[in-house]
Write a structure and sequence with these properties.
216 residues, alpha/beta, Rossmann fold, seven-stranded mixed sheet, binds guanosine-5'-triphosphate, binds magnesium ion
Length: 216
């Protein structure tokens, strides 16, 4: 897929204010500092599009970016950021999980995993939760430039093995680096393929928002 345009649309703390669910949408999620915002900038080739920081916890809102006027990338706050208070963490958790569970136009959750690390419990638990909810997801291993390909492959293999404890089938996965741009074509082609099958959810008018479904 060729990226012709990518623009910031909105930041939200309220699900009722999200853009109408009429375009295919991909949520980028993972532990704080895993490289979500960097990956979004790398995919779109726009350096300052999503805000990057040395400090974990930079992304605090649901951020919508419109790509090629036809699909959304969503940058989400990272989970597992230790310096956030427990109650704030729970609030975020609930908010993000509600978004993921209820957003009709969400096509796939892109779960980012740090390729330098052994499988982390928080990532495995998050994948299990997605599985329980029946949400489609893929794994995107990040920062592969930071170590040897052998080490990356070992960690990927360990993660896949750990997932097999909960899943019969493994999700598709990508190995990426925002530094070298590796994996860019694979991720974009995947998204392009899914976009082709998108149909506007027909059970609601395009102007209806998620908030109407609350109470489920
Ligand atoms: P939060 O918004 O805080 O949850 O973080 P995030 O997941 O959006 O991470 P972000 O993109 O802000 O990147 C965190 C740090 O990792 C920054 O210092 C980036 O420069 C660095 N980083 C991200 N991706 C890569 C990568 O592929 N390679 C290398 N070498 N560094 C990376
Ligand atoms: Mg971020």
């Amino acid at each position: 897929m060729i990226i012709k345009s990518a623009e910031f649309i909105c930041s939200n703390t309220q699900i009722s204010k999200l853009p109408p669910p009429v375009k295919p949408e991909y949520a980028f999620i993972g532990r704080s500092n895993v490289g979500k915002s960097s990956l979004i900038n790398m995919l779109t080739q726009k350096k300052g599009l999503a805000k990057i920081s040395q400090t974990p916890g930079k992304t605090q809102l649901i951020n919508h970016f419109l790509v090629n006027d036809s699909w959304y990338i969503v940058d989400l706050p990272g989970y597992g950021y230790a310096r956030v208070s427990k109650s704030k963490k729970e609030d975020w958790n609930k908010f993000i999980r509600t978004y993921l569970d209820k957003r009709e136009s969400l096509q796939c959750v892109m779960v980012l995993i740090d390729s330098r690390l052994e499988p982390q419990k928080i990532d495995l638990e998050f994948c299990s939760w997605l599985g329980e909810k029946g949400l489609a997801f893929v794994l995107v291993f990040t920062k592969e430039d930071k170590q040897s390909a052998v080490k990356t492959d070992q960690n990927v293999a360990k993660f896949k093995k750990a997932l097999l404890a909960t899943f019969d089938e493994l999700p598709q996965y990508f190995i990426t680096s925002s530094e070298t741009q590796s994996g860019r074509d694979d991720v974009l082609n995947f998204i392009g393929g899914v976009n082709q099958h998108f149909e506007i959810p027909s059970f609601k008018s395009p102007t209806d928002h998620l908030s109407l479904k609350s109470g489920n």
